[in-house]
Design brief:
By secondary structure, this protein is of the alpha/beta class. The chain has two domains: 80-318, Alpha-Beta Barrel (TIM Barrel), CATH 3.20.20.70; 321-350, no CATH class. It contains eleven helices and twelve strands. The protein has helices spanning 10-15, 26-33, 40-43, 54-59, 125-136, 156-167, 181-184, 191-197, 218-229, 248-260, 284-297; strands at residues 88-92, 95-99, 143-147, 174-179, 203-209, 234-240, 263-270, 305-310, 315-318, 324-327, 334-338, 344-347. The chain has a nine-stranded mixed sheet. Strand 1 (88-92) and strand 2 (95-99) form a beta hairpin. Helix 10 crosses helix 11 (284-297). Bound molecules: pyridoxal-5'-phosphate (PLP) and iron/sulfur cluster. Pyridoxal-5'-phosphate (PLP) binds at residues 77, 89, 91-92, 95, 97, 145, 316. Pyridoxal-5'-phosphate (PLP) binds next to strand 1 and strand 2.
Amino acid sequence: MAKTQTLRKPAQLRERGLLPAGPPGAIENVAARYAVAVPPALAALIDRGAPEDPIARQFVPHIRELETQPHELADPIGDDAHSPVPGIVHRYPDRVLLKLTQICAVYCRFCFRRETVGKPGALDRAALAAALDYIRSHAEIWEVILTGGDPLVLSARRLREVMKALAAIDHVKVIRIHTRVPVADPARVTAELVRAMKRKGKAVYVAVHVNHPRELSAAARAAVARIADAGIPLLSQSVLLAGVNDTAEVMRGLMRALVECRIKPYYLHHADLAPGTSHLRTDIETGQTLMRDVRGHVSGLCQPTYVLDIPGGHGKSPIGPNYLERTGSNGAAHYVVADFNGGKHDYPPR
Ligand SMILES: *Cc1c(COP(=O)(O)O)cnc(C)c1O
Ligand code: SF4
């Protein structure tokens, strides 16, 4: 039985060899501050012999999480500044986030919502009704993005209710589900759950959060295939993380593995300024160098857009690398464009 349990306490992580043996210590303070959950599917992927295992780094709490930098923010992407009613974040005109729950199947140590995930605060019936009213009364909302928390921790019945209510809104044409469940708890992706996601007349997309190729275990691949086989297109979101995927080899392998699973790489996120996560962040140049490498070595299908969510709620912007420069002056202006090998080529102004 113990083997199939989600590990939520440092003592359980010690018992399983995922934290060094010993008496309670500072790690207990980390667990008291930020939610911990390592589900069996992910615990099984951790190489206990490797102290810096990329799966462990993402999910096993670390004492460095107690080090908060002055520029780190409780609400790093500024959700609160754009929340007209509970559960809704309306930052861009044509799309909203709908946060149904704050629960996830796994708690990532770098989570941008780590101050809120894992805490009570699921939308109750009245709040959900108010959030749906908000969407209904804003005809400019073309797309609804279910996020949280993780919408796929909900029961199939509850998910179906929400999907039906959204599908009944004429101006909502696209429903996107952001999730880590296919990787964290692949068995949850049942035929019933997949049916609950599908809605006639609406385009439903699933965006899966994956950061290392090893997360795409046989079970995760099968879960993803159940979604793809139902005709639901899949996208990926990955977070650039130090010691997890900040090498060319891992990043190429990740993007290829995603495409092999019929998941189109969508975003590579620069890690947000969430509190206690500086040991997991890289600088932006590292990300740009990796993007150039991926562009130079693997298929065009494997290219995500590298984005930064600007602190304060200003939204996401692509942060390069840039292949085009405009140079020259006095009417002699022209372009210089870099090729995938880094060679530079002149191009006329028009
Ligand atoms: C990230 C985000 C979206 C989705 O952005 P896309 O670029 O469409 O993927 C929408 N709303 C908010 C508030 C977001 O943070
Ligand atoms: S699955 Fe997403 S929301 Fe949940 S802890 Fe990980 S990064 Fe945060």
